[in-house]
Amino acid sequence: MKKKLALLLALAMVVACLAACSGATTGGGESNQGGNQDQNQQGDSDENNEGGSSSGRDDVIVRVEATWGTFDPFKSTLYVEYFEMNQMYETLTWVNDEGEITPVLAESWDISEDGKEITLHIRKGVKFHSGDELKASDVAFTLNTAKESVVLRSHLGSFIEATATDDYTVVCKMESPFAPFMSFIANIRIVNEAYYKEHNGDLDTNCNGTGPYKMVDVDLNSVCHMTAFEDYWQGAPAIKDITFTIITDDTTAAVSYMAGEVDFIMCPASQYLEISAQPDAYSFTAIPTKHTALFSMNHEREPFNNKLVRQALNYATDRETMCQVAFEGYAEPAWLQGNETCFGIDYDYAVKYPYDLEKAKELLTEAGYPNGVNLGTMYTIAGSYFDKCAVVFQSSLLELGCTIDLVGMDSTAMTSEILAGNFDMATPGQSFSTDFAYASRQYTTAGIGSGNYGRYSNPEVDALFEQAQGETDSAKRQELYGQAISIVTEDAVDIPLFHKNLMFAWNKDLNCTVHPDSSYPYFVYNWSWK
User: Fold this and answer.
1) Whole-number Cα distances in Å, 502 to 7, 142, 329, 437
2) Nearest residue to 152 (alpha-carbon basis) of 519, 450, 413, 521
3) Burial category of 37 from C-beta neighbours within 10 Å (exposed 0-12, middle 13-18, buried 19 and up)
4) Are 183 and 127 in contact (CB under 8 A)?
C-alpha cells in the first residue's frame, strides 16, 4: 500500500516530464474502427429544428483534444478525426444504442438465401454538398475503394465487389456469407465518385459528404469551421455554424469551458470531478463506451514472441490502480478487446490475469528470465492517461527486475510506427462494435498492418473467425467466438487495461445528446439552443 501511494504521488511529475520531453499533443487519438450510432434518428430530438433560440445563438464551439491528420474517410484512423467527419459524411446503415441495424443512406436491403448476394436500395433525393445527387454508382465506388483501404477492408469481410444495377440499386457480391456485413458497413462513409476523381483521390481536407454540415475551412493543427448544409435530406440543422477548436491541454480546455469560451468538451476525469460538483452551473454526463485501452506487444520481437513472457506481463499489470490514476475510477478492468455488451463476447471463456507479481515472476523464470529482462521501449501518447498507465506498469516491472524505457509521441506518429511494426511495446486504444466479428482485424493474420497491432498470427484463430463470420446460427457463432476468446487470452495477445467512460460537459443553455460510442458519441445535428 505504501509503494502504491508513493507511486500515485509521483505520477504527476513523471507524466509532466514525458509530455515536456516529447513536445507532443495531449489527449487521445487512438486507432479505432468500431463504434456505431443510429444516425437516422438525428432529427428526432424534440428541440431540434424549432426556430430561434432564447440564447440568440446559432453557432457552437467544440473542443478537440488532439491535432488532425486527415479527413479522408479511406485513411483516417484517429477518433478526433471521426468526430468531425461524422458531421459531414453518412453511412448506409447505423447500429443504434440498442444494437439494432437501422437504415440511413440505404433505405432497405435484401440478402440472398445463400448469403452471397446483398442488394442495397439507396435512398432517393439525397444530395452531396457539391449538389450532386447520391447515386448507386457512388455507393458501389465507395465500397470497392474501401476494399482496397488498409483501415476499412476488414469491415467488408468476404466482400468481392459492388455493382450499381440502376441509379438506386447496388448489388454486393460476397465470396461467402458474412453475417455482420450490414452492421459493419456502418463504419464506411459514402463519398462522391466524381468529386473523388476530380481531386485525384485527395480527400484530406477536400470534404464532400451527404451529412448535415459542410466544410468551410480547416487548419489541421488548430481549427475547423463547418456550416449547415441547407439541402440536407433530413432538414437543415438548428445550429448553423460549428467551430472545432483544438485545445490539447486538458486544464486549459476545462478553464475555457468554465469561462464560457467553449460550449462542449470531452473532458478528463480530474476536470470532470470539478465540473460535476456544480450541477447548477454546468451540464455534464459520463457514459460507458465501446473502447479498450491496451498495451500492445510486438510478437515479431524478443522477448514478446514468448507466450510465457506475455502472460507474465499481463500478471504484472495493475489494472485497478490504472483505472484510478487514469480515470479517477471511471473505468472497468478489461480482459479482452471488447466487453460483454458486444455479441459473441462471454468473459467465462476468457483467461483472466489478476495483478500477481509472484505469478509473473514464476512465469518469467520459466521463460528463462529469472532476473528479469529488458523490454526495450514503450511508445505512449504523450500527456494522455496512457502515460500514467505506463508509469504504473514500469513501477511493477522494476519489482520483477524488468526495465522498459517510456517515450512520448503524438498519436499519429505512434500509430504509424505500430502499423509498420516498428515498436517493442506501445499504448494504443481500440474501439469495438456490437458484434465480435469486428475483432478479426485485431486477432487474425489478415489484420497485421491494420488493427492487429501486435502482429499476432494463429491459424486456429483465423479459422474460427472465418467460420463464425459465415455462420447465421447465433448460438453456433457464440460458441465459435468463445473458442477464439479462450485461445487469444491464453496466448496473451496483448495487455487489455480497461474500458473507459467518456465524460462530456456542455453549455447549460445547450440541448445536447451524447451516446455510448467512442467513435460516434455525438452529432451536432441533434443539438439546439434553448
Assistant:
1) 25, 31, 12, 24
2) 450
3) buried
4) no
Q: Give the chain's length.
A: 530
Give me the long-range contacts of 7-10 (CB less than 8 A, separation at least 24): 7/321, 7/391, 7/392, 7/395, 8/321, 8/324, 8/325, 10/391
Return the H-helix or E-strand segment holding 264.
strand 264-266
What pLDDT, on the 0 to 100 scale, is given for residue 342?
86
- Which one-letter DSSP state was computed for residue 221? T
Please name which of 292, 327, 241, 276 lies closest in space to residue 79, comparing C-alpha atoms.
Answer: 292
Q: Domains, the chain, ranges and CATH? A: 2-30+289-501 (3.10.105.10), 39-206+509-529 (3.90.76.10)
Angle at 515 between CA 510 and CA 516, to 5 degrees: 145
Low-confidence residues of the chain, pLDDT below 50?
1-52
d(CA 335, CA 343): 16
Cell of 357: 507479481
DSSP, collapsed to helix, strand or coil, labels residue 302 as coil
Handedness of CA 453, 488, 403, 31 (dihedral sign): positive
Closest residue by Cα to residue 290 from 104, 439, 398: 439
Rounded to whole angstroms, what are the CA distances from 483 to 181, 350, 460, 478?
22, 9, 10, 9
Q: What is the dihedral of CA 180, 186, 192, 193, to 10 degrees?
A: -20
Closest CA to 79 of 526, 518, 527: 518
d(CA 16, CA 37): 36
Measured distance CA(215)–CA(224) in Å, rounded: 8
Contact between 80 and 62 (Cβ < 8 Å): no
At residue 352, the 3 state secondary structure works out as coil
pLDDT value for 1: 40
Tell me the H-state helices in 377-435: 385-398, 411-420
pTM for the structure as a whole: 0.73
Quick one: cell of 231? 439541402
Q: In degrees to the nearest 10, what's the CA dihedral of 450, 455, 457, 462? A: -20
**Sheet-wide strand order for 159-166:** 106-111, 117-122, 169-174, 159-166
* Contact status, residue 393 vs residue 317, Cβ threshold 8 Å: yes
> Burial, 217: exposed, middle or buried (Cβ in 10 Å; 0-12, 13-18, 19+)?
exposed
Model pLDDT, residue 97: 78
Q: What is the pLDDT of residue 55?
A: 66
